[in-house]
Amino acid sequence: MIGRRWYVPWLFLAPALLVTAVMTWGPLANTGVLAFTDARALGGGQFTGVENFRRLAQDDEFFRALANTGLYLVVVVPALVLLPLLLAQLVHAKLPGLGAFRAVFYSPVIASMVVVGLIWSWLLSSEGLVNAVLLRLKVIAEPLPFLTDSTLLLFSCMLVTVWKGLGYYMVIYLAALSNVPNELYEAAKVDGAGAVRRFRSVTVPTVRPTMLLVGALSAISATKVFAEIYVLSSGTAGPGGQAKSIVYYIREVGLGVDGEIGYASAMSLVLLVGTLGLSVLALVLRRRDEGSQA
Amino acid sequence: MTRHGPVALRYVLLLVMTVLLVGPFLWQLLTSLKGTGEPIYGPDVTWLPRDPTLGNFGKVAEVIPVWRYIANSAMVATASVVTNCLLGAMAGYALARMRFRGRGAVFAAVLASLVVPFEVIMVNVFLTVRSLGLVDTLLGVLLPGAVSGLSILVMRTAFLALPKEVEEAAAIDGAGEWSRFWRVALPSVRGSLAVVGVFSFLFAWDDFLWPLIVLKNPDNFTLTVGLQYLSGTFTNDQRVVAAGTMIAVLPLLAVFFALQRLFFRGVGEGGVKG
Asked: What's its membrane topology (chain B) (predicted)?
């Protein structure tokens, strides 16, 4: 062990700790305090107890944002647990060119959500390619309002989230698949198991911990959805602002000209409880999973 | 699909997925190359531009100060790489290599910061940045992501894996605390530094929500906020918006495809494992 003066470690830590304290812990503490006040961007700050939470319980717009975010979660998480696994299976083999396909499938991850959102806004607009193709194929008679109907808008955003996330979760699955012993597949094949059967009985059980991880990661990121909705609706959240997510609503309430900091902080605490809940749920599921395998 | 499915079917599916995942980029690129006289939708639209032109790329610069936006994004992203690598490595080094009172508490605080989503605290981060007088500045854009808990964690793991003997030998040779870190330890964890650097760059370059909150004056926008602004305020010409998105994404994709082998190896080693 190297002897050193007591303050040396703190000198190494100081810059990082200063940034984290000022930019994370301070604001978090502030959120916890201001949630119980009527603070606004331009004044206020009287202690009001649980008034903000009482107001939240009666705020239809908040419940709509909550429902939208919940719907988002319910659709996006299963898609992002399953589809990237299938994609990973597709590129997980020793065949020529698969490395290139991997890189190609990852490219939407590299692009910014704004770029991806603008690309899809054009594809999904009433004159866009998707409607043109559907019209040409006579699947529909009129262009579908993918971006101007609030429900369809939400589903369009989900499509964008899934499209952009496929490659990211594929890479996580690839790391897990490389640990699946080849002999298991061979044995299953000898036993006459078909492709679907092998997937269900060999692949899924061995990568299940990773599926839980992907489920948790995609769920946490889905509760924070913002950019997709903002970009696809050009900052309107659909007709009448009906397609807001929780983060969208927090930003609108807390960061307007005279932002209601207190009320937005209360909402932020609800969001924090939601994301922490999802993290804990993932941990519990994972532990139970390990328990059942032991 | 399994590893032993028919090879031809596998390649067909790979091609279908390629069309689905690359097609949107390609359609945007083709739209950006079509001239003003050419229809980009309706019955007369063609896949390929009849008379390809780069004119729309020039028009982007007429509508928004796109070069300044690129410079702003590049400055923030580069600064973020430097701060995340340097401050993350310093903190990670102290946590991995030094024994001191309070180390457990610091480490716990770093871990705990990982489960606090930025979106939860963004309103109050804005208040802090405002009280520091940094609204509408690039420093204000940089600060909240200047050193993430994840960067500290990745660097700590890297230093933990390093054999202690090297530094002890350097200490015996009379090297001071800082020079052991800077000359001996840091060069040995280049791989992890690269992972932290690449992800810090991408995160800062692609970030949208925070720059949208902190930047008010269109002159100070970063590229993501500027592109959104381009599509909303000034023009309805989809060709110009398409050219703008291509300006933003083509350099990234070019670098990514040039380095993809290194990238996937780095991601594999960097601990993004299940």
From this structure: Multi-pass membrane protein
Would an 8 Å CB–CB cutoff place A148 in contact with chain B?
A: no
Facing B242 at nearest CB: one of A15, A122, A167:
A122
Angle between helices A26-34 and A261-293 (to 10 degrees): 110
Interface check for B99 against chain A (CB to CB < 8 A): the answer is yes
User: Complex ipTM, two decimals?
Assistant: 0.91
The three state secondary structure string of chain B is CCCCCCHHHHHHHHHHHHHHHHHHHHHHHHHHCCCCCCCCCCCCCCCCCCCCCCHHHHHHHHHCCHHHHHHHHHHHHHHHHHHHHHHHHHHHHHHHHCCCCCHHHHHHHHHHHCCCCHHHHHHHHHHHHHHCCCCCCHHHHHHHHCCCHHHHHHHHHHHHCCCHHHHHHHHHCCCCHHHHHHHHHHHHCHHHHHHHHHHHHHHHHHCCHHHHHHCCCHHHCCHHHHHHHHHHHHCCCHHHHHHHHHHHHHHHHHHHHHCHHHHHHHHHHCCCCC
Asked if the Cβ–Cβ distance from A195 to B110 is below 8 Å, we say no
- Closest-CA distance, A255 to chain B, in angstroms, reads 7
- Partner A contacted by B122 (CB < 8 A): yes
The residue extents of the domains of chain B are: 62-224
Q: Determine the residue type at B87.
A: L
Closest partner residue to A12 (CB to CB) among B90, B231, B267 is B90
Domains of chain A: 67-254 (1.10.3720.10)
B223 to chain A: nearest residue by CA?
A: A114
CA-to-CA distance for A131 and A135, rounded, in angstroms? 6
State whether B45 and A132 contact (CB < 8 Å): yes
* Backbone torsions φ then ψ of B56, nearest 5 degrees: -65, -30
pLDDT in tens, chain B (274 residues): 444 557 889 899 999 999 999 999 999 999 999 988 888 887 778 888 988 989 999 999 988 999 999 999 999 999 999 999 999 999 999 999 999 999 999 999 999 999 999 999 999 999 999 999 999 999 999 999 999 999 999 999 999 998 888 778 888 888 788 999 999 899 989 989 999 999 999 999 999 999 999 999 999 999 999 999 988 765 678 999 999 999 999 989 998 888 887 777 766 554 443 2
